[in-house]
């Protein structure tokens, strides 16, 4: 044996040598009598691709949905709410100033709030009237930077209100038109409390992007709201906006102490715990359900590889008689099955990434083709479909698909390696 031949023989006996990759590639290419096996491999590839893509898309949409809701909720409502205990909050200016000076607090905003019926020329609906000062309202960019008509100039002295786009559409009003606000907490007379009815001009129309807020919120000048809700010289509460909304827990004690009076402090997580807990449960359940798609595709790999091993029994026997080890035979079929999983996973990742980048365009296209409203804002709160791919979750999905695909190849490959050449060639 020459030195070159010896080197080639040594190369051929190394794990994952060139001939193992060559055989695996040959088994992946179908011939006429192997069409059925190739169809199973094709379905396995499509299943893994769609499973990975679906998982990435759904998790990205749910992350985007949660993130958008969180930004809308925290963009309008404070991260913490300070409410009075025992007595009315008539020292709101002093309390807000003390809280403003605390470390980690962006600003504190006194407000007056009450529920009322808002009516216009073509309809009426319930609204949440919130009285705020112009200087504080301008600190809430989610409102001031989403003005679609009108302006907040001289809001304190305008004697008007600002409403959302959906409320304006349902009431049939525009900037300059008047809306009538009816509150059950009106004037106190000898015959009882009579509802308070008063008309206000619309000075601004905003679009926060969350249907519930755009159809419910009515912003009114602070002093006008005090008069309207019979809260002269007092505020309903103080909204506190902090630098780090995720770190509101440790700050609650500091805000309670900084208030300098008996007060009940709640944070955004306590006020929305049911809603965000439901979203988290739904997200985890969807992940488990959609993982079954990848699992089914992995089971298809097992069935396809098992049939391939049975079909290639004659070839395996000849390879064994020519000196191929059991390890080499096992690696050939591991490479064959794993290639389906790897290529399917990569294709699924690319497909999911492309869809996530264009998910809103796709939604609009489907809505246009079907003439229906996909993800109605009235049901899903948001006016657009968001998608936010989390790097850690995406890596988890990809790794999970690769591991399942690899595990699916082990048993068929082990069966191929255990094949007895004598039994396979007995009737040849």
Explained architecture:
- Belongs to the ABC-4 integral membrane protein family. LolC/E subfamily.
- This is Lipoprotein-releasing ABC transporter permease subunit.
- It is a multi-pass membrane protein.
- The protein is an alpha+beta fold and 428 residues long.
- The chain folds into two domains: 15-69 and 276-425, no CATH class; 87-261, no CATH class.
- It is built from 19 helices and ten strands.
- The chain has helices at 3-13, 18-28, 35-76, 92-100, 134-137, 141-144, 155-158, 165-171, 211-214, 222-228, 248-259, 268-271, 273-311, 313-321, 326-357, 359-370, 377-380, 391-417, 421-425, and strands at 80-84, 105-119, 124-132, 147-150, 161-164, 178-189, 192-206, 217-221, 237-242, 263-267.
- Strands 2-3-8-5-7-6 form a six-stranded mixed beta barrel.
- The longest helix has 42 residues, at 35-76.
- The two termini are 32 Å apart.
- Residues 1-12 have low confidence and may be disordered.
């Amino acid at each position: 044996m020459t030195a070159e031949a010896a080197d080639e023989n040594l190369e051929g006996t190394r794990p994952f040598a060139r001939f193992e990759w060559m055989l695996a590639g040959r088994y992946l290419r179908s011939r006429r009598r192997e069409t059925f096996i190739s169809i199973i491999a094709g379905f396995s590839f499509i299943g893994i691709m769609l499973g990975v893509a679906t998982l990435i898309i759904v998790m990205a949409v749910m992350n985007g949905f949660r993130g958008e809701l969180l930004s809308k909720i925290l963009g309008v409502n404070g991260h913490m709410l300070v409410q009075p205990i025992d007595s009315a909050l008539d020292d709101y200016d002093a309390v807000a100033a003390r809280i403003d000076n605390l470390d980690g607090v962006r600003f504190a905003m006194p407000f007056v709030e009450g529920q009322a019926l808002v009516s216009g020329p073509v309809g009426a609906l319930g609204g949440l009237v919130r009285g705020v000062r112009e200087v504080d309202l301008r600190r809430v960019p989610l409102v001031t930077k989403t003005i679609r008509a009108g302006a907040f100039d001289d809001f304190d002295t305008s004697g008007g209100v600002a409403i959302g786009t959906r409320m304006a559409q349902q009431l049939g009003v525009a900037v300059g038109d008047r809306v009538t606000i009816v509150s059950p907490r009106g004037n106190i007379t000898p015959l009882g409390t009579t509802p308070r009815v008063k008309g206000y001009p619309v000075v601004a129309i905003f679009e926060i992007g969350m249907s519930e807020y755009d159809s419910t919120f009515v912003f009114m000048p602070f002093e006008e709201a005090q008069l309207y809700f019979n809260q002269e010289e007092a505020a309903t509460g103080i909204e506190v906006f902090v630098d780090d909304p995720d770190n509101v827990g440790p700050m609650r004690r500091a805000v309670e102490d900084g208030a300098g009076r008996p007060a009940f402090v709640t944070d955004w997580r306590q006020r929305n715990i049911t809603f965000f807990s439901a979203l988290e449960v739904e997200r985890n359940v969807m992940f488990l359900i959609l993982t079954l798609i990848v699992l089914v595709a992995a089971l298809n790999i097992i069935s396809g590889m098992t049939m391939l091993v049975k079909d290639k029994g004659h070839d395996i026997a000849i390879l064994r008689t020519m000196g191929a080890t059991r390890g080499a035979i096992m690696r050939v079929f591991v490479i064959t099955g794993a290639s389906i999983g790897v290529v399917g996973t990569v294709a699924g990742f690319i497909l999911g990434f492309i869809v996530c980048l264009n998910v809103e365009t796709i939604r609009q296209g489907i809505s246009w083709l079907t003439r229906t409203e996909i993800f109605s804002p009235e049901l899903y709160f948001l006016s657009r479909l968001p998608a936010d791919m989390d790097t850690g979750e995406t890596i988890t999905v990809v790794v999970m698909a690769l591991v399942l695909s690899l595990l699916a190849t082990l048993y068929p490959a082990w069966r191929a390696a255990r094949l007895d050449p004598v039994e396979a060639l007995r009737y040849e």
